[in-house]
């Protein structure tokens, strides 16, 4: 007597949907990371040839517009309010980096006031945001 062996179907794992999902995730992450920019107040930063500052874990952005208005984290503040709010930041994170984004046409005295407020509040790490200078020949 001859017994029939059961037919074994050729079992395969379909990877086409997996490849589709990987490409969709890749496109999603590529698009979402290219739109991360510094939103908020438009300032014309002065140019400098210094290298970029590496970002610290905690940073506070202070913007000085060409109209000499001061914004702390996109909120309009006075010099006195700025110092009070920076003291609160210093209590939470004494190693916080204060990044000053001052318009090239803003008054030097206003920027110095911001720097003094940061120092008086106990924050000693200051950075001034600039744009890279264009070198001769059009290259940066």
Report the count of strand segments. 7
Count of DSSP H/I helices: 3
- Distance between termini? 86 Å
CATH class of the domain at 47-132: Alpha Beta
- Average pLDDT rating: 82
Based on CA atoms alone, the radius of gyration comes out at: 27 Å
Can you list the strand order of the major beta sheet?
4-3-2-5-6
Class of secondary structure makeup: alpha/beta
Strand content: 15-25%
Global geometry: elongated
CATH architecture of the domain at 47-132: 2-Layer Sandwich
Q: What's the CATH topology name of the domain at 47-132?
A: Nucleotidyltransferase, domain 5
Largest sheet: 5 strands, mixed
| Share of residues in helices | 25-40%
Low-confidence stretches: none
Could you explain the architecture of this structure?
The chain is an alpha/beta fold and 140 residues long. The protein has a domain at 47-132: Nucleotidyltransferase, domain 5 (2-Layer Sandwich), CATH 3.30.420.270. The protein has helices spanning 16-34, 79-92, 108-120; strands spanning 47-48, 59-64, 70-72, 75-77, 97-102, 125-128, 131-132. It has a five-stranded mixed beta sheet with strand order 4-3-2-5-6, covered by helices on one side. A two-stranded parallel ribbon has the order 1-7. β5, α3 (108-120) and β6 form a beta-alpha-beta unit.
């Amino acid at each position: 007597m001859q017994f029939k062996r059961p037919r074994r179907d050729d079992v395969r794992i379909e990877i086409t949907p997996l490849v589709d999902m990987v490409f969709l995730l890749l496109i999603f992450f590529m698009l979402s990371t290219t739109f991360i920019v510094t939103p908020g107040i438009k300032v014309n930063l002065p140019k400098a040839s210094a290298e970029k500052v590496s970002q610290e874990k905690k940073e506070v952005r202070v913007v000085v517009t060409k109209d000499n208005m001061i914004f702390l984290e996109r909120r309009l503040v006075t010099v006195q309010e700025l110092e009070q709010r920076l003291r609160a930041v210093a209590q939470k994170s004494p190693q916080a980096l204060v990044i000053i984004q001052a318009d090239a046409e803003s008054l030097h005295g206003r920027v110095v006031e911001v720097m003094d407020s940061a120092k008086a509040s106990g924050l000693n790490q200051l950075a001034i945001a600039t744009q890279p200078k264009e070198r001769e020949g059009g290259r940066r």
